[in-house]
Each structure stands twice: as C-alpha cells, then as structure tokens.
Amino acid sequence: MKKDSNSEWYVVVNPQAGNNKTRADWPDIRKLLEAEGFNMECVFTEYQYHATKLVKKAVQKNGVRKIIVVGGDGTLNEVLNGVFSQNTVSTTDIAIGVITVGTGNDWGRMYGIPQDYLEQIKIIKHNNTFLQDVGKVKYLHHNKEKTHYFINIAGMGFDALVAKKSNIAKQKGAGGAFSYMFNLITGLFQFTYNFIEIDTENERIFSGKVFSMSVGICKYNGGGMMQLPFAKPDDGLFDVTVIRKVSRLKVLRNIKNLYDGSFIKIKEVETFTGNQFTVTAVPKKSVFLETDGESLGHSPLHFTLLPLAAKVIIKENPN
Questions:
Q1: What pLDDT shows up at residue 272?
Q2: Cα 178 to Cα 65: distance, rounded to the nearest angstrom
C-alpha cells in the first residue's frame, strides 16, 4: 500500500450512470468532495466512450495522475481504457478511485467499497493504493480487430446476451437489479448454445457446446453474481468459469447459487486459470463478448493478462 498527499484530482462524472442516478446525486457528491478539501477538475461524459477520450487527453496533455470515477462499472471501464491508451506515463503512475453510482458496482463489491458516498470519498482521500491485474482482449467488430482492456470480468455466450439486453434497457431508462433479472430470465428463451474451443499457448483445454463463459480478475458481475469465486485480483492469473450446455430449467433452479458461487459444483461447470487464452467458435459462428458489462464484438477472442498493471484506491487489501 502506498499513501500520498491529496493534490489535484480529475473527476469524471457520468450523469447517466445508475439509470440517471448520478445526475440526481452529483450536487450532493460534489459538496461532499469540496467539504473534504479536494482540489479538483470535474468533467462530464456525453456519449459512450467519451470518458476514454477525456482521460487519455487529461493524462497526456494536462499531466493528470489522480482520477475519480463517479458512475458505474461501465464508466470505470471507459476510464481504464483511457489510462491504457495513453503513452505518456506508466499506467501504474495513475491512481483511480471510484464513487460507485451505477447499477452493478461489481468492482466495488470485490473490494468491500461501502455504498455511502461520504465513506467512499474518505477512502479516496486516504489514498490507499493497490496494484491489480488487468485483462486485455482482442476481438472483431465489423470485421476489424480491436483491443479493449477490462478491470473486472469478461463474459461470453449467455452473459454477453444478457449484458446486451441490459444495455439496451438502460438506454430506454430501465436499469437496476430488477431489469437485469428480467433480461436474464427472458434471455433464457432467446439464447442458442455456442460450440467453442479454448486454447492456451501450448494446448487446447476445452472444446464443446457452452451456455456461458467468464474470464476475469475479480469475483462478481451482473450485480452481485459470484461468477469467479476463487479470483484474486493480484495473482497474475485469469480465473475462468465455463458452463457447458445445460437445461434452461436447471439454470433457473440454480440462479440463487450464482450469488454465493456454489453453482460451480454442478457437473456442467468447469473452472481453470491461466494468463493467456484464445476463444474461437466452431464452425464459423461467432461468440459475442462483453467486458465489465459493456457489449463489444465477437470471436475470435484473444485474452492476455497484464499483471499488477492498474493502480486503484481501495479500503484495504482484499487478500
């Protein structure tokens, strides 16, 4: 852990996060930040990936080294990609704190970040930093290869479908845990299984029809589902959970077990770890991808782990 003095902070605010909750709560959050003595510049996102552009410019041209994210996991993901797309300083020279106002807040759940805004602000002010791993994934979007970074979990198959449905619902003003659960259940009747192959550098480790697949650094996604119950954010390894083809009825019966991680005991679930994976769909169908709840493109997917690459501000060491 490293502590340093409170200096200039670049505050990235997503007014639409949490189904527009940030827009309503920002005046109070700002007063709390000012009362705690933060010297800050505040900027507001206006469209998807705007935070990435704002952060990249702020780091490269304005010398920003301390960032506060006011929003949800998607906003944090955009900020992370801004940090990793700049080439001025090491990514670990830039500290990232989060005031969670989103619908999922799964990254904060990993670190026990409290929901109370003042408590979150005091954690950021205390500035305990922790180096965590970061995921890098290459994928296709409109037949062009793209690269994206993620700080929490990437999901494929059914996970990606639910994320896409949830993101569409958010755009229509229907966010939150109830909306996510509704999209999860309705998605069961729309989903088709993918036949995928998973390879490491040296061998094929999986081949078969899958319901969903998660690759990540932290434990939670989908608003508290423990998809990767053994994940440690600084161990230099991805955790992977694959759910093979399973009946829809069995999925419904085990939804509650997603929240405590016990679903991994069912026979259709496999877990493993590694620092590099390639995921392809067979024959030429695509498996779709989401990272930190944001819908991206499709296979082939190439995952690489970047060890201890992001400096985040947390309450205490999670291990």
A1: 95
A2: 37
pLDDT of residue 176: 60
* Nearest 10 degrees: Cα torsion 226, 295, 319, 12: -130
In the three-class reduction of DSSP (H, G, I as helix; E, B as strand; rest coil), residue 220 is classed as: strand
Half-sphere exposure of 292 (CA within 13 A, CB side): 26
Give yes or no for a contact between 195 and 157, defined as CB atoms under 8 angstroms apart.
Answer: no
Q: What is the dihedral of CA 221, 157, 240, 68, to 10 degrees?
A: -30
Amino acid identity of 6?
N
User: What ranges in 188-268 are assigned the alpha helix state H?
Assistant: 248-253
Distance of alpha carbon 129 from alpha carbon 266, whole angstroms: 37
Distance (Å, rounded) from C-alpha 96 to C-alpha 82?
11
**Tally of CB atoms within 10 A around 151:** 29
> What is residue 17's predicted lDDT score, i.e. its pLDDT?
87
Tell me if residue 156 falls in helix, strand or coil.
strand
Task: Determine the distance from the C-alpha atom of residue 130 to the mean position of all C-alpha atoms in its chain, rounded to a whole number.
Answer: 17
> Rg of the chain over CA atoms, in angstroms?
19
3-state secondary structure of 56: helix
Alpha helices (H) in 38-155, listed in sequence order: 50-62, 73-85, 106-110, 117-126
Positive or negative, the CA dihedral 165, 295, 131, 205 is positive
> What average pLDDT values come out for the chain (319 residues) when binned by 10 residues?
58 90 94 96 95 97 96 95 97 97 86 94 96 97 94 91 71 62 74 90 93 95 91 97 92 90 95 96 85 90 98 84
- Measured CA to CA in angstroms, residue 134 lies from 77, 163, 172 at distances of 11, 20, 31
For residue 1, the model assigns a pLDDT of: 41
Alpha helix (H) residue ranges in 86-129: 106-110, 117-126
Q: What six digits make up the tokens of 107?
A: 């990254």
Which residue segments constitute the domains of the chain, with CATH numbers given?
Answer: 8-133 (3.40.50.10330), 135-307 (2.60.200.40)
